[in-house]
Design a protein that fits this description.
This protein has 397 residues and is α/β, with parallel strands linked by helices. It folds into 2 domains: 5-150 and 369-396, 3-Layer(aba) Sandwich (Rossmann fold), CATH 3.40.50; 197-360, Rossmann fold (3-Layer(aba) Sandwich). Helix content is 43%, strand content 14%. The protein contains 16 helices and 12 strands. It has helices at residues 16-26, 38-43, 58-68, 82-94, 128-134, 150-164, 182-194, 196-210, 226-230, 237-251, 272-280, 296-302, 313-319, 343-346, 357-368, 378-396; strands at residues 5-8, 30-35, 49-50, 73-77, 97-103, 111-116, 214-219, 256-261, 288-291, 305-308, 324-326, 370-371. It has a 7-stranded mixed sheet with strand order 3-2-1-4-5-6-12, sandwiched between helices. Helix 1 crosses helix 16, helix 3 packs across helix 4 and helix 10 packs parallel to helix 11 (272-280). The longest helix has 19 residues, at 378-396. The radius of gyration is 22 Å and the shape is globular. The termini are close together.
């Protein structure tokens, strides 16, 4: 079989997609790239083809390109971005494989690379028995620790935005998938840093109030996150938070507390402390608390359970044997792994995962869609390119 032609669409800000493409080229593959905005163009160092038309015409334009260039596979980050949804449809129509990169299902040492053969989405497991079957012949690999990467991620995101702004006239039809403009997110981050001292003081006070008490942890997710938007019944995080607090006030034991934690990567445009305190006023017993800062490992060790829409905090809790209740549709929302009983019962009798359930689930993910790598840190990127190239070329062989 001749060496494949592989098309790259949008990736995370930073060099991750470019490095994977370079590794594929070194191994003989032909690589093409489509840029949808100035940030894409900059991250690809000025190469690739630029799409400047409206979103409504992208699918047809791409379908013609796939035929003309004899594309064998498409690599993209996040299947739910508008341009990528159009690409998925075009790929299915022509029987072209997709490789979908995402933040890792299991944190902190993985990234996700799903293989969608002929454009058909990678199937989530429907049960623990299916996990056992799919992971039966694959041993779970020993993980190499991937360092934290907040500041490289921040720098890459800012650089991407700074490149996109002056080139906006060249891509006048482009609309970001993100719910807020990057300029307002930057202002919100500056506000977060200005408030950091006060936030830490208030967080310590809230943690003191639940010390020694029975409490549940509710980690917030970022509004606009694909897992929240496309895999939950909620229109946004406010709606999910209100549903959880309403159920807690109505059904939780009187001696039980609920601790709401802001997402560490949320610029907090919404004002989550204000929103949570407004909703918490419904509880006459004052058992609902909000924190911006707190050691997640310690919180997971001491909480009675985790309530989440579909956050990856759920997998961190399950790895520690903690009970987890899922409000949305999470890959780990399996009977015997998560507690699938009604939330009203979870407050009273949270059920931990069955013995061995998490290891079985994790082994299935590692065998099918996880890479022990990272998108931002130097160490993570050094592992990402060869591991991703290995998997892509093996699936196309």
């Amino acid at each position: 079989m001749p060496d494949p032609t592989i098309l790259f669409l949008q990736g995370l800000p930073g060099p991750s997609s470019r490095l994977i493409a370079g590794e594929l080229q070194r191994r003989g593959a032909r690589v093409l790239r489509i840029n949808c905005n100035g940030g894409d163009w900059f991250d690809w160092r000025g190469g690739g083809r630029c799409y400047r038309g409206p979103l409504e015409q992208f699918g047809d334009w791409l379908a013609r390109l796939l035929i003309a260039e004899k594309i064998r596979a498409i690599v993209l980050f996040g299947a739910e971005r508008p341009h990528h949804r159009a690409a998925s449809t075009a790929a299915r129509g022509q029987g072209i494989d997709l490789f979908v990169l995402e933040e890792g299902y299991l944190r902190p040492n993985s990234v996700t690379l799903e293989h969608w053969p002929r454009g058909v989405a990678w199937a989530w497991p429907a049960s623990l028995d299916e996990c056992r079957t799919r992971a039966a012949e694959t041993a779970r690999p020993a993980e190499v620790a991937i360092p934290g990467h907040f500041f490289p991620r921040m720098r890459q995101s800012i650089t991407y935005w700074l490149a996109a702004v002056p080139l906006k006239p060249q891509f006048r039809h482009y609309r970001s998938h993100r719910p807020h403009h990057s300029f307002f997110e930057m202002l919100a981050w500056n506000r977060r840093w200005a408030r950091a001292f006060a936030e830490r003081r208030k967080s310590r006070q809230a943690l003191d109030r639940v010390k020694g008490a029975r409490f549940f942890l509710l980690p917030l997710q970022i509004d606009g996150d694909a897992q929240l938007v496309h895999r939950s019944p909620f229109g946004g995080m406010v709606e999910a938070l209100e549903a959880a607090i309403t159920d807690f006030v109505a059904h939780a034991p009187r001696d039980c507390h609920l601790l709401v934690k802001r997402h560490p990567l949320d610029p907090d445009l919404a004002g989550w402390r204000r929103i949570t305190e407004r909703l918490a006023a419904r509880d006459p017993l004052g058992r609902i608390h909000f924190i911006e800062h707190g050691d997640l490992d310690q919180l997971l060790e001491s909480c009675a359970g985790v309530v989440t829409v579909n956050s990856t905090v759920g997998t961190l809790a399950l790895a520690r044997g903690r009970p987890v209740h899922v409000l949305g549709r999470a890959i780990y929302g399996l009977k015997g792994l998560s507690d699938t009983a009604p939330l009203a019962r979870f407050w009273h009798d949270p059920q931990p995962p069955q013995p061995g359930a998490y290891d079985c689930f994790a082994a299935m993910l590692w065998s099918e869609c996880l890479l022990n790598a990272g998108f931002h840190s130097r160490e993570g990127l050094a592992r990402l390119a060869p591991l991703a190239a290995d998997r892509i070329l093996a699936k196309l062989a």
